[in-house]
Every structure is written in structure tokens, then in C-alpha cells.
Amino acid sequence: MLTFAPVGVAGRRATAFDCLRFDCVDRYVALESHEDGKSPVVHEGVDCRELRPGTFHAIAVDVRDGGSQVTVAIDGARVLDAVRYEACASDSPVLAFGVSKTKLCWRAISLVPATGDVGRQMVPYEGDEPHLVEAVMRDMLCEDLGVTFDDIASLGPAKRLLNEAVTLPLLIPEYFTGIREPWKGVLLFGPPGTGKTLLARAVSSMNDVTFFGCSSATLTSKWRGEGEKLVRCLFAMARHYAPSILFFDEVDALVSRRGESGEHEASRRFKSELLTQMDGLRSEEDSSTSRVMVLAATNCPWDLDDALLRRLEKRIYIPLPSEESIRDMLAIHLKDIKCDDSVKLDNLARRMAGFSGADVKLCCRDASMMPLRRLAADKSPSEIQKLKEQLSSTSLTIDDFEMALANTKASVPADSVGHYESWESQFASTVR
């Protein structure tokens, strides 16, 4: 093992020191204490499959409480999380870095006082084909979209499952091993406008999760073999930036049933490559692979290929909202809008039975425009500009909602709901 020579008081070599050991052959990280004349004491050791000879990694080390608590992150992923131990060099605590069985090479070292938690760093991915990496970074890698689970009414089962699949493994990774490994594939299905894409957007705002919004427009290409290469690049980047989520909206457009008449050879190759990459998430034991999840949404689950359904382990039905859920949606949409006492949310929710979440939002938006329509009628642009103060003090009335309800029709036919419920009874997962 190679280490920096730890230095004690007044430049003397320390006879006792604590060491982080990075083994790039057996691929693990260990926190050890060394003292002259004694065998090393291993306080904590974890496998780290990303460590390989000849690779560079961004390593962040946070040392607190006089050297008795250490957090280590490699490429933004924590491998040692707030590990407490009894430092052997209490007089002048020293933390040495070491690496075994390979050449040690540092690009840059910086020591700064700790001002907060060990943050997650985005180390750029360098692939074999830069134009594919650029396409994924430009069109698919999403930042925080500004939606949280608190912005979504009801859908408790889906929220719990996504929390179980994404958040909890980050908080207690040691629990999610073996048979408890996190879900690798989740399908959200149901009528249009029920909140499937909104749930995915809320997932993108979770801390320490990289979110890829995968569209068919980016993944398909007119060049032979380009689509398959892009899929491989996408999954490689997801593993690099793990923990990560790959979200496929309208996944039925990408992976419909194979073997149907009129299916193009290029489409079949693309589907096979996508299914192969998804299956790799299930079979490999790499720690980065185990932190990649595929999230898909569709309005037509019966059109999906059977092999895709097998890989999407959890299939969650997102139904039309109940009366109680519609009331919660109304409260969310109207929280910043003044309404007079004639507006009763319970009565409005009852009137909106059969509406999707998108229909409810559309109705609220239409009702909120009614005061402007009344006040701005037959007025010039200069007069309309002077209405700002009057508009801010005007409350919505029940008549505004009556007009909005007359203008808004349910977008989901009542007879189509039975089709979803039938498919749910055959294939859906129950989350309680």
C-alpha cells in the first residue's frame, strides 16, 4: 500500500495515523488505523466497483469532529457515509490517503474547511462517440423541473412506490441489498391527463438523482445503427451519473409489440437493444448499475411488448381522480386565487366527476380568466392596462365556475375507463 507520509507535530513523522485505502484491483475502499508495531485496524470497508486501474475519479472527503467522523464520495456517490470511529492519533489527528496495487496519480488536490455536507459532483462523461454524448446531454439530461410530490393531489400508492424505489435506497443503501434490491423498472399507465408525466417531473426534483427525459424524437435516427448506439450511450451515461432515472414518456411509441405486420427492421433492432440494456440493469452486480431505474408512462399499456412488461417490474394504474382527489386539486390550483363565499370546493368537485387532472386544471384556468373577460370587454389597450389594481382585488364567483364548467368537457370517454380497469386486473401491481 502506498500512502502519503503522515506528518505529526513540528514536522515529525506520525507513528499513529488513520488512513483511507483505495484498492483498485480488489476494488474496495477501507478506513483503517495504523500504528507502529501493530496490525492495521479496519473500521469500515465497502466494495466500490468503479475503482479500476487506469481510471480517474473525483474523490471528496469530509472529516469532522476532530477526525472521528469521515464521509467519502467517489464521483458524487457516497461510499462511506458519516462513519464514526475512534481515531488513533488523538494528539494531532492526521488522515492519510493511500492506494494499493496500482500507480497513484493525482490531477489536483484541494483542502478546504468544511462548510456543509459533501455535495454531489457531476463528473463529465467521456464516451467513444462525442456527438452521441452531446445529443443525450442536450436533449435528455434534465435539471430540476420545479415540481414536487406536494404539488400533486392524491396518487398516494404511486408516490410511495417511487419513494421506495428512489429515495429510500439513497438514505439507507445497506438495507436495499440482496432480495431487497431497489426496483429497476416502473410503469405508470392510465387515461390521458391523470398525472403520469407530472409524477415523473416530481421525481426529477429529488435530491442527488440524475433525471434523463428520453423522447422518441432523440432516440430514433434515420442513419442505420445510430439509434442502437444512442441507446447504449444513454444507459452508459445513466450508470456514470448514478443514481439516475431514465424516463420514457409515451413508451408505447418506442416499444410496441414486435412481430406485427409493417414493422421495420430498424425498429425491431432498436427495441431489441433497448430491452437488452434494460435487462443488463437486472443482471449486473455493479454498484452503479444497481442505482439506475427505468420509469415509463403510457396511455396504451396493451400495445407494449411482453418482454418490456417483464422488465417493468412494477406496473401502477393512475386512474381518473376521485371526488376527494378533485377537491384537493382545486385547493392546489386555487390557492393563490381569491374566491368569494359562493365558491364551495366540495360542490365543484361533485360537478367535475369524470374529469381528469388536466381537465380540472383547464377548468380552473378558464374560471380564473372570467374577471378579465368581463372587465376588459369593449375597452382599448390603454384602458386595459389600468385594470391591474381592479383585477387583483376581484374575487372569483360561482358564476365564473358555472361558465367554465359549461365550456369544459371531460377529455376521457367513460367507456374507455373499463378497458384500463380490465388491463389493471390482469397485469397491474398493487401498492398499499
TrEMBL record:
InterPro entries: AAA+_ATPase, AAA_lid_3, ATPase_AAA_core, ATPase_AAA_CS, MT-severing_AAA_ATPase, P-loop_NTPase. GO terms for cellular component: microtubule cytoskeleton. Keywords: ATP-binding, Nucleotide-binding. Belongs to the AAA ATPase family. Pfam families: AAA, AAA_lid_3. This is AAA+ ATPase domain-containing protein. Residues 182-322 form the AAA+ ATPase domain. GO terms for molecular function: ATP binding; ATP hydrolysis activity. Gene3D superfamilies: 1.10.8.60, P-loop containing nucleotide triphosphate hydrolases (3.40.50.300). Coiled coil: none annotated. GO terms for biological process: microtubule severing.
